[in-house]
Design a protein that fits this description.
The protein has about 100 residues and is an all-alpha fold. It is built from five helices and no strands. The chain is flat and about 45 Å long.
């Protein structure tokens, strides 16, 4: 099995087994991160994380075959993707991928 697939699978299991705790963490940080912030600030922050995620994925495609640093970053992103998908498979409440980027 490829390392990226193993990282994704590990993340998936973690997300599925800890979905309830992930939701509780979200409830705990929700007031701190999101309350009393203007929509403009929240939108700029969200866009920043979306842009960074897209840039990271582009760099992985470009560099991971030849650069060990980007190959390991690919594993981290695969595990995070698996965590999100595993959470979605078991959670009663939905969360956006944005939350997984900021927490």
């Amino acid at each position: 099995m490829k390392n990226t697939a193993m990282a994704y699978a590990a993340g998936y299991l973690e997300g599925a087994f800890t979905a309830e705790y992930i939701w509780e963490q979200y409830q705990n940080v929700l007031p701190w991160f999101f309350n009393k912030r203007s929509d403009a600030v929240l939108n700029r922050t969200r866009q920043f994380f979306i842009d960074q995620d897209a840039w990271t994925r582009q760099m992985i495609k470009k560099h991971s075959p030849s650069d060990p640093l980007w190959r390991h970053i690919e594993y981290i992103i695969a595990q995070t993707d698996g965590l999100y998908d595993g959470y979605k498979s078991k959670a009663k409440q939905g969360l956006s991928p944005y939350f997984f980027l900021i927490s």
